[in-house]
């Protein structure tokens, strides 16, 4: 290993070679129920770097596995060799003429591609459930499909070209004539072999017929043998073999797909049937209708979500054999949508349903219907016993066998004791997912799982000649069963393909083809109980794109993986080694605690809560005493902070912002605001309203000396709109406790919050049993106070400033819009509270041009994290620079510390949206860049 690592160190930057035990463990985890810890993790950012890695691997005999997002479910993205993480250097995107095609790098998230295509009314064909997280590399490598994709629009069927690096280090770009010509010379023998295999396969009527039959339904078991019968040109054969090859044949450096139409008009229907058989009769009829998706749910799946708020009450009255179909119809126009919906309903005439079939077009109802489907998998994961894992398998049957096969599968699961299992799937393709929980901690449970998988194979393959893997990839999970499904002749072709393209078996060995018939029972992931906050985590990775520290240190999934291992070692009496020391910084110090992970988590886990819990446990007695003192003397803290800020401004005036930033370890920021001052009280007529200026806006003043402070701006706006703002008593000594809560000092933070709530209740009391509205000007503080007030019996209503401005100020103010452009940053609290629509509407009322940078979520400032761990702020905002045009010289947000970090990182002046609203509502409007 040392010689190999030394060679790589001469070829790649040191920061891209990850050797520490914590990150090798954490980065090596994917969404499957397998665990292998890589000996080395390498982040590759360019084709030359991939070629360098492959060259060193060949020379030293090291196996390499490429990883995109790690959402794969079958164990195809774990290794005990070298794990190559595909870096952001591979995140390019080029939209073709008329957006009928798109060229993408493998590191680009699928949903980001669709967001770029949306203005053209197009999208990529594959639509896996993980599209908000999974990346193009994984979508292509697994030939992922989804609810609407079917077999017609997956990566294989929509492939227009690709650029691939083979195990020998060679490159082929199928869209570049020169590259193709050179490859035909350099790899003539390889192409001749592929051409001969194709001719022989097409000439074998029985084999060719079997391959065609296998791909009439969804099938990702083994290699894409349909390439041998669909194409004669060996370049085309090679390109299509790469799709679904799970990184075992080469590295896909870029991919061009033909896009499909994204119809703007949609309608959904949730239909309930007395039995699976009747539901499947309906599916057979629907196959010939213009439906976009038909999802089947068995009674157990419906039962798992039937008590969730907002779902149809009839779900709780269904019989034991009932089933449901969720149907979606799409069209370019409302008239066409109505015609298509009518055609679907006509096809169902005579089919027995529990309620009369009807389509809904309003988004709220359609979203409610899809919550039924999307909530089933998480419900099983959330209810499972601690220490168990949740497994989702996917199989496919010929459509004509779907009803019988579903009943057989239900019976099989019951027979093997999986009473909690649910079944749902993409009915039009005969594709069923079944979800169950499994304990791998003992021999008895392992034996039960082994017998289940044998029974599943017998049912799917022997009885129905279906697919053991429909869309999740073969991986390690079904590698031992490939020959059983395909037969010896077809499997021999797959071995020839592997040997031809990867003769040293360096690329992801053990995946797709594995001679070990027990491979699916080895390297099973431990899921020890660690904390009740996180025990429900299924390690899917859906959280990762939302985390500001992902790629810098750890993501939420990786924090949970790490803490589970530390907890396991502690319970077993094993030393923590380097893991505990590394976790202090990578796991705790660099967690922003923003909670955005919970918005994507299928089971709603906020990993920030774990961070706060652990910070509190590890807090020293001195730190706790300091926290208690802060809670009791916050007015003094505010005064000292203002003095320190003034001193900093004086020092920066002498030596400059840059040197001062270096002297303070990054705590001092370029463009640091002036020291704040206590807001003044207002007297006058108007509708009473209570204004609580958050401490950040009181400590940190305006960005420039000529500007008013945030509390002054908000107060002026309230008066201008006809309100009489009143400040809570001793407000300058009050704080909601957010800063202490983020450090895990819950008791001191709670005391501070109680004091604020008491002051707000007193100030807002209208004397008639009610309360005046209360406004806070920092979204993080508003969210905390809203959560606390929601648990009290009072009807006091607290608004974040932008919410009150949208609801109450806009109707009273005369607005003159600015030309813009204005940059918008929607901070974490606004996203979690789902009040971003009001923020956008407020900004739209003030500016004619809005820039909302894509790929920018949490700014990483995390209250005071931006001062203590400035690299987190820089990393979180690394994508904002390219997204802001040169003529965009200012930005708005709703959290003072976020605005400080944004100002420092972008060089633009970010302020509260209150400033922009105040400028746009002045009688004499004066604006400048």
Automatic annotation (TrEMBL):
Top-level taxon of origin: Bacteria
EC number: 1.1.2.4
Cofactor names: FAD
InterPro entries from the UniProt entry: 4Fe4S_Fe-S-bd (IPR017896), 4Fe4S_Fe_S_CS (IPR017900), Cys_rich_dom (IPR004017), FAD-bd_oxidored_4_C (IPR004113), FAD-bd_PCMH (IPR016166), FAD-bd_PCMH-like_sf (IPR036318), FAD-bd_PCMH_sub1 (IPR016167), FAD-bd_PCMH_sub2 (IPR016169)
SUPFAM superfamilies the UniProt entry points to: alpha-helical ferredoxin, FAD-binding/transporter-associated domain-like, FAD-linked oxidases, C-terminal domain
Domain spans labelled FAD-binding PCMH-type: 34-262
Keyword annotations: FAD, Flavoprotein, Iron, Iron-sulfur, Metal-binding, Oxidoreductase, Transit peptide
Family: Belongs to the FAD-binding oxidoreductase/transferase type 4 family.
PANTHER family assigned to the protein according to its UniProt record, in alphabetical order: D-LACTATE DEHYDROGENASE, D-LACTATE DEHYDROGENASE, MITOCHONDRIAL-RELATED
Protein name: D-lactate dehydrogenase (cytochrome)
């Amino acid at each position: 290993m040392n010689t190999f690592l030394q060679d790589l160190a001469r070829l790649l930057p040191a920061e891209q070679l990850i050797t520490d035990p914590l990150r090798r463990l954490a980065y090596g985890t994917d969404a499957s129920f397998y665990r292998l810890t890589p000996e080395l993790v390498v982040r590759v950012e360019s084709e030359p770097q991939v070629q360098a890695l492959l060259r060193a691997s060949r020379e030293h005999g090291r196996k390499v596995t490429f990883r995109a997002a790690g959402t794969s479910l079958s164990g195809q993205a774990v290794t005990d060799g070298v794990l190559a993480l595909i870096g952001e250097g591979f995140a390019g995107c080029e939209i073709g003429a008329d957006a009928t095609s798109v060229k993408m790098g493998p590191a680009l998230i699928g949903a980001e591609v669709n967001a770029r295509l949306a203005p053209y009314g197009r999208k990529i064909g594959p639509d896996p459930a993980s599209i908000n997280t999974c990346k193009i590399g994984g979508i292509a490598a697994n030939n992922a499909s989804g609810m609407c994709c079917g077999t017609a629009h997956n990566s294989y069927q929509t492939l227009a070209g690709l650029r691939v690096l083979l195990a020998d280090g060679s490159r082929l770009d199928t869209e570049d004539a020169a590259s193709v010509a050179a490859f035909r010379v350099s790899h003539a023998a390889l192409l001749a072999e592929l051409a001969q295999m194709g001719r022989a396969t097409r000439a074998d009527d029985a084999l060719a017929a079997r391959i065609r039959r296998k791909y009439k339904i969804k099938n990702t078991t083994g290699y894409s043998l349909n390439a041998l019968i669909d194409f004669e040109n060996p370049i085309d054969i090679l390109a299509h073999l790469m799709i679904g090859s799970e990184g075992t044949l080469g590295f896909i450096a870029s991919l061009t797909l033909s896009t499909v139409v994204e119809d703007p008009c949609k309608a959904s229907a949730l239909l309930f049937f007395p039995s699976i058989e009747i539901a499947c009769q309906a599916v057979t009829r629907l196959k010939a209708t213009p439906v976009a998706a038909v999802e089947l749910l068995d009674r157990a799946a419906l039962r798992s979500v039937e008590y969730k708020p907002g779902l149809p009450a009839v779900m709780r009255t269904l019989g034991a054999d009932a089933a449901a179909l969720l149907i979606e119809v799409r069209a370019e126009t409302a008239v066409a949508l109505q015609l298509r919906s009518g055609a679907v309903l006509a096809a169902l005439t005579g089919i027995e349903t529990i309620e009369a079939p009807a389509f809904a077009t309003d988004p709220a109802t359609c979203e409610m219907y899809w919550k039924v489907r999307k909530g089933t998998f998480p419900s099983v994961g959330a209810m499972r016993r601690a220490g168990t894992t949740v497994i989702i398998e996917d199989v496919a049957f010929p459509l004509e066998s779907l009803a019988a096969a579903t009943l057989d599968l239900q019976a099989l699961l019951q027979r093997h004791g999986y009473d909690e299992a649910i079944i749902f799937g993409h009915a039009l393709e005969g594709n069923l997912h079944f979800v169950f929980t499994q304990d791998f901690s003992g021999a008895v449970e392992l034996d039960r799982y082994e017998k289940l998988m044998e029974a599943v194979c017998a049912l799917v393959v022997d009885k129905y000649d279906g697919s053991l893997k429909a869309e999740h990839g073969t991986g390690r999970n079904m590698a031992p069963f490939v020959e059983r499904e395909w037969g010896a002749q077809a499997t021999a072709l797959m071995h020839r393909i592997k040997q031809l393209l990867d003769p040293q078996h360096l690329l992801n060995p053990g995946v797709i083809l594995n001679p070990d018939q027990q491979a699916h029972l080895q390297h099973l992931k431990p899921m020890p109980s660690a904390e009740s906050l996180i025990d429900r985590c299924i390690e899917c990775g859906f959280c990762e794109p939302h985390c500001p520290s992902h790629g810098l240190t750890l993501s939420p999934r990786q924090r949970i993986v790490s803490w589970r291992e530390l907890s396991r070692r502690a319970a077993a009496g094993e030393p923590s080694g380097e893991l505990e020391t590394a976790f202090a910084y990578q796991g705790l110090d660099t967690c922003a605690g923003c909670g955005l992970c919970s918005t994507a988590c299928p089971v709603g886990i906020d990993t920030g809560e774990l961070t706060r819990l652990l910070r509190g446990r590890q807090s020293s007695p001195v730190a706790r005493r300091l926290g208690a003192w802060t809670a009791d003397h916050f007015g003094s803290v505010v005064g000292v902070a203002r003095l320190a800020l003034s001193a900093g401004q004086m020092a920066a005036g002498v030596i400059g912002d840059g040197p001062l930033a270096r002297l303070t370890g990054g705590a001092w920021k370029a463009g640091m605001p002036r020291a704040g001052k206590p807001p003044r009280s207002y007297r006058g007529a108007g509708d009473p309203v209570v204004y609580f200026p958050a401490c950040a806006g009181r400590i940190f003043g305006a960005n420039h000396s000529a500007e008013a402070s945030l509390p002054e701006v908000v107060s002026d706006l309230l008066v201008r709109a006809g309100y009489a703002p009143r400040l809570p008593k001793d407000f300058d000594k009050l704080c909601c406790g957010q800063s202490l809560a983020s450090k895990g000092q819950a008791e001191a933070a709670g005391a501070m919050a109680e004091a604020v709530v008491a002051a707000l209740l007193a100030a807002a009391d209208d004397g008639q049993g009610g309360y005046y509205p209360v406004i806070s000007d920092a979204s993080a503080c508003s969210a905390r106070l809203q959560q606390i007030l929601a648990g009290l019996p009072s009807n006091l209503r607290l608004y974040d400033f932008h919410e009150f401005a949208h609801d109450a100020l806009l109707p009273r103010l005369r607005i003159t819009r600015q030309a813009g452009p204005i940059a918008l940053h929607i901070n974490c609290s606004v996203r979690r509270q789902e009040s971003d629509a009001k923020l956008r509407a407020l900004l739209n009322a003030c500016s004619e041009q809005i820039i909302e940078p894509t790929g920018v979520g949490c700014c990483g400032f995390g209250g005071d994290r931006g001062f203590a761990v400035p690299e987190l702020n820089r990393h979180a905002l690394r994508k904002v620079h390219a997204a802001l045009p040169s003529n965009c010289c200012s930005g708005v947000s709703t959290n003072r510390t976020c605005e400080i970090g944004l100002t420092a990182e972008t060089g633009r002046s970010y302020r509260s949206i209150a400033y922009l609203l105040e400028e746009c509502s002045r009688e004499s409007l004066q604006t400048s860049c």
